Each structure stands twice: as C-alpha cells, then as structure tokens.
Amino acid sequence: MGFNRDLQPTAAIRGHLQFTHSGLVTATYFINPLGYGLRKAGDKFDVKMAHHALISNLPNGSLLLGIQARQNTIDVLSKMVEGVDLDECEDYADEVVASFERVRAINPLTRIFLLSIPVGAAANSGISALSRMWRSSTTTIDATALSRADLDKYEEEANEILSRVGGDFEPTPVPAALFQWLWEHYLARGAVNDPVAPTRIGALDDATAAVFRSAALDEGARADSNRRLRPSFVPVIKIVQPDSGYRPSYQAMLTPRSFPYGGMAFPGGSEFLAVLEGLGDVTVDWGMRVSAKPAETVLKNNEVNLRRLGEQMDQRDQEVSFAQNTLMSKAQMLGEYNQHFEVNGGESEVSFTTVIAVGGSTQDATMDAVNTLRRRYKRFQVEMTAPVGAQVDLWSMLVPGSPPRRAYDDFAHIVPSDMWAGFVPFTTNQIGDDSGPVIGINLLSGNFEPIHFGIMEAALHDLSASFAVTGELGSGKSYFLKLIAVLVHDMGGQFLAIDRSQVGEWEHFAASIDNAVIIDLANPSVSLDPLRLFDPRVAGERALDSILPLLDLSPTSGAGAAISGLLSPKGMEQHRIRSLLDLYKVVCRLRDAPGELEEYADLAARLGTVVERVPVLFDPGLRPVRLDAAATVVRSHKLALPSAEELTTPHLYNRLPLTKRLGTALYELVGVTAREAFLSDNGRFGLLVGDEAHHFTQTQVGASVTSDFSRDGRKHLAAIGLASHDPATDFQGAAHNLIPNRFVFRQRDETLARNSLEWLGVDLEEAPFLLSILREETSPPVGAGRQVPEERRGEMFMRDALNRIGRGKVLGPARPDRGAAITSTPSVAGHTEREPEAVR
C-alpha cells in the first residue's frame, strides 16, 4: 500500500495547531505524566482522580499518545550543566565531556506523552460537514488565508478545554517540528534511522504538508514473500522510505480483543499500559482515541436496551435453550451498569480504542516482541490481537488528525469513566530532578533514563538539597557519599566530611583534590575551641552546648549555673575569657579566691580532667580552624563514640565514660562549626557529610545541626548528607521529616530491610515483594567468593524531592581519575584496594 495523503492528513501547521485536509483543526500538547512507580495506594488514587477529571472533560475524538523515543545525548548533557559556570568549574566540564560517550553507550530511552484534541473545523476549508464524511481527496486548505483571528479562536477553544481538564498534567504546546518528527518516527519505528525527538519547547513555528516524507506501507510484507499474488496473513507492516537509504521498519499493531470479565482491580491490576517497557531492540508506542457520553444519555440508552431485552425474552419464553439464561444474565449486567450511573452522578461512558504499535528492524524481532507482549497481557487476563487486514488502519490511528476509520469502531471498548481512569495512561516511573549531574540510571522504568540529582540547583529553587543513605556494610553507602561530595566540589562548592574509617578512605580520596585540608582530632593541627571560632555574641552558647554534656553537668545545677554565668556575654567580658583555656584559668582562680562559691572547685576538678587530654579544645598554640577550603576531611577514627543505644537509653547515657563523652563533644563541634561556616551567605554551596548518622540525630546538638541544614540549607546554599545502617533508630526527627532525598542500598537483614523501605515511604502491606527484592535482588553477592558482579553494583531504591519512589543504579564519575579516587581505599598495609561495592 503506497503512501497517500489520507494517511498523513496534515495540510498546514501553525505552532501546535494542526489543520487537516478534511477541515479538522486539532491542538497538540506535551503532557507531564504523574509520578507513579512504587508510591502508596493513596497517592495512586489521587493519580486516578486526575485521570478521571481528564477523561470527563475531553472532547470526542481526542487522541492520547505515549511515544517511546531515544533521548538526545546533547539534551542530557545540557541538563547536567544548567546553572553551572563551566569557565569557573573546569573539573566539572571534564566530567560532562567524559559523560558524553557513556550516555551514548547506554542509549537511554524516554516516553513522550502527547494529547491531541479537536478544537473545531477550518473556517475556510470550503467544504460542508457532509463532504468531510466522504474524505474527499481533492479537499485542501489555504494555509496562507489563516488569519490571526482564526488562530486566536482555536486557541481560545483549546484553552477552554484545558481549563476544564485542570492543571494536573501541565499541558504545554508542542512546536511545529514535533509533527514532522512524529511522522518520521512512525515511518522508522524501531529501525536504525529513528530520529531523536525535539522535546525542548521552541518558538512557535509553521510548517506545511511538504515537510512530510513519502513512504510505502506494505501490509503483510508481501514484498518479502515469493508468493506475491496470494494474500498475506502475517499481521505486520513493512515500511520502506525509498529516498532515505535506510533499511525498512517492520511494525505490528496490537489492540485489546477483550478485558477481564470480572473487571480490573485498581491499583495493581488495571494499569495495562505499564507492561510495554523493557522489550529490548524494538520500539513500542501506544495510542488511545476516546469519546464520552454523559450519564443522562447513558441512562436513556439503558432504558431502550432493557426494553429490547424484555422483548427478546418474551419471544423466547417457550424456547428450550440456553438463550433465556443468557438474556437474563445480560439484563442483570445492564441493571448493575445502570445503577452505577444512577449512584455516581458525575460519571460518563467512555468509548476507547487502544493501539499498541511495535516496530523493529526485522520481522522476526517485531513478532518476537508481539508474542512477548501477548504473554505479559495474559497475566492481566487481557487478550491482545493483531488483526490481519486492519494493520494500516490501526497504524494511522496514532497520527494526529486522522479521519475516523471502521477499524476504530470495530476494536472499541466501552467502560464507565472511573474504570477508564484506572488505566492511568499518563504516568511515569521517572525519579530524580529535572537537571543536575547524572548519578545513575533508572531501572524501574525499563528505559534506562539518566537520573539527575540537582543538589546545588535545588537550593537555588528553594528546595532542600539534603539527603540520607542507608544500607548494610559494603553496600555502597560510602561510595555514594564520596560521589556526591566530589560532584559538589567539581561544581564549585565545598564539602566537609567526617572520616570514621580506620584506613582513612576519605583522606585518601581527598588527596585527589587540590588544596584539601585534613584534620586529625586526635593529633590536631588546628583548634576547635568554640570561644575562638565563633562570634563573641554566640561563642558562649556554643561552648556551653559542648561543655555541659562533656562535664556531665545539668544547666540548672550549681556548677552548671556557675559556668553558664561565666560564659554569658557579661561574664566573658568581665573575666576576659577568650578561650576555653582562659575559662579553665578563671575557674581555678575563683576556686582559690576566699569566699567564692564551692561550685568553682567542682568545676575546676571536672575541667582539669579534660584540659590535657583534648588539645584540640585547650591548646592556645593551635590556630582556629577555617572552613574555607574546597574539601575538608575531619578524621575521628581515634575517638571513642557511643552507640545509638547508649545515646537513646537514659541510664546507659548517664554511665558514659569520659572518652565517649569527649568523642561526642568533638563530633558535635565539627557539625556546629560546619553549620556556622556553611549556613552563611558566602555565595558558595556547602555540604556536610556524616557517615555516623546517629551522632547527628540522637543528641540535642546534633539534632539541631541536622534540623538547621534541612530547614535553612536551601536559603544559604547548603545541605547535609547522612548515612546509617538502621533508619528506624538513626533517622529520627528532622532526618526523617525534613530530608526529602533518600537512598536505600542492599539490606539483607529482614528487620533492617523492612525499616529501610518504610523509611523510604513504601507500604509493605501493599507491596510485600519489594522486601525480597531489596534483600536478594539488589546488588546480590554471588559465586564462590560472594562478590557482586560489576554490572550489578550500585543498585538501590530512591525517593526524590517530589516523593517519587523508584529503583536505580549508581554509575559513579565518568572521569576515570575521579572514579579511581572514589573506588580505591587505602588498606592498613599502605596499598590500595577496590571497595567491594564500587561502581564504575
């Protein structure tokens, strides 16, 4: 079958308005799909209600499209550099350049969602409605005669329709170039010459029918058969573009023959379009034409149908057959259907025709994908058919503006609008941000889309950029923290990381960064004395936050009240206290002065136990730390720190030894120092990284630091990144409520895995299978050495800033040198070795 104008109905295009040869005018929009994936049932019902509002307000003949297309590598890289000055960030420019080959090798796909609605008939088409029904091949439209007033009239009609639909799907007018791309995509579906979609909105432009290529559509691929005179019963279309020089595309059109008799449960059983992803080397598009009738019309039609059934039952009253039972069953179903519309006043009846278009470079690849889809749909109890003789007609249904054909009615289905809404066709499993560095790929969608994490862009858009990570030992938490830290550095920000590892993995990693500063709290080269670090107006309060728990003093006790008085602005000025060593000397002097309070003796004794042990607080010869370096690593491996249980259990906390109290005080001081440095308007993004989350969430000072970063980081270009093994105990308060970006790596322990998924926002009663996926199918160690295969490393679950939950794989830096610095970890012997969960 050769190409003709009837298959491509466009006569002229003005921006997103399409004028067809039959006189129909349509408006086409990009649709922003709603997040779905692994969200809770309550959220999915909200998505269903948005689709119900959509279908209840669309005009008859509307076309919904889900088009699978290759992502433009340049578009991906453009999103990576949004908001980044590459002239100032040469390291990040190198990362973006290195990402080009990796993204192109992954060949990510995407699904573009479109809505095409009829908005009227062309005023100057010169034909009547009756003539349009005959689809005269001589009908044309004078594109030059279209006035601005005509275009405005169609725009107003389209805007009125969209206003009734609502803004849930954020419809955006498509550029005229999209119509040309859509046609070329249909002609080359699944072939090597399938073009990249113009997904970026451009200026509204014009086009005519001349931009559409010609092609030959061979239904049944008879040209490939030696028996060309005999009809072909293969449900496939061979599409050849003689002028392109590319190989042909073999396509098959599937449409539902029947849906389950007992209905399709929502959620989980009705989303039949969700099975189209991940079919390998073929391209799968879907289209759905819809029309609706109001409830009043449906009720009237039901009354007529009921009378007809009654007449048939009377005629067969004396007949001995199964017909009477069949008619009774139909009458009962009609009664239930009628009651549904009587009870639900806002309902409408939807007639819809669905076409699933499968395209590949060979006939065998296309038919294999068709058979795979049929098997998948058997699980939904949906029977799919590829009707012979109707392939081209069904193929044309996906072309916006196509005139009605008999096949559209032959394969139409009728359901109430709330049941149609359960199909939720405009949904996505996308996770991550709209821009920012690529940290991984999406595994849930099946299209391997890059996952962008705009940690620095989020702060600029008044969103929290803080994140938290959980997973078992060796699952990739530290690797991920280092990945985000190095990306922040390369984009012009700064980070401070607390290194608890005995081998100094962060120190080794920081060695690859110019002018990085390493601070060892046990062998200090700088001072963390809060009285020397902070402004005198707040220095006393900051010192009290650390000193009181360290000395095991209550602020209301006698000694606590005495030291509080000394560290007040008035007391510090009176006694000229400029450092903690000055404080100790003043306390000793007051202890020895006659007539002074006995509390000073207690204070002097308590301070005397720590003065010599903590030079990082009391040595006046050390310069105060300055957090102005691009990378700062604080080594705390020699500090004794309490466990989460000791911090949360009162009687255990009261019996903490001095060494652990010292460790906690210093750990908190690092966080407080980072807060003072990063939560200030210095124009530079700052990231605080803590791998021992409970020390930032379970203590009063640490919880305050976490809360401040989570709440105010967006105002001051700052964020906090925390890691833990058990989110149920460690991620409490601000870490649970205010940190939006959450990552869960492998957890084989059932309790910890359950805690991790619940913290992520997954309802395990609705989706219990996710527990086994996290425990057994997320970066699983296999083989004799129980090693994770290279291609399975970095798998994780993710919840993004929009509360979308999905599954992905962390990729790591594209630059080999950065990847080597993050992956390798120094051993105790001094040589380097690969981290067990490192990801290339």
Can you characterise this structure?
The chain has 840 residues and is α+β, with helices and mostly antiparallel strands. Helices cover 39% and strands 20% of the residues. The chain is built from 32 helices and 31 strands. Strands 1, 2, 3, 5, 6, 7, 8, 9, 10, 11, 12, 13, 14 and 15 form a 14-stranded antiparallel beta sheet that branches. The protein has an eleven-stranded mixed beta sheet with strand order 18-17-29-28-27-19-26-25-20-24-21, sandwiched between helices. Strands 4-16 form a two-stranded parallel ribbon. Strand 17 (433-442) and strand 18 form a beta hairpin. It is elongated and about 115 Å long. Residues 1-5, 125-138 and 829-840 have low confidence and may be disordered.
Concise synopsis of the structure shown:
Helix content is 39%, strand content 20%. The protein is built from 32 helices and 31 strands.
Basic shape: elongated
Strand content: 15-25%
Mean pLDDT across residues: 85
Which spans of ≥5 residues are poorly predicted at pLDDT below 50? 1-5, 125-138, 829-840
- How large, in whole angstroms, is the Cα Rg? 34 Å
- Distance between the ends: 50 Å
Q: Can you summarize the main beta sheet?
A: 14 strands, antiparallel
Q: How many beta-strand segments?
A: 31
Helix-and-strand structural type: alpha+beta
The percent range for helix content is 25-40%
| Number of alpha- plus pi-helical segments | 32
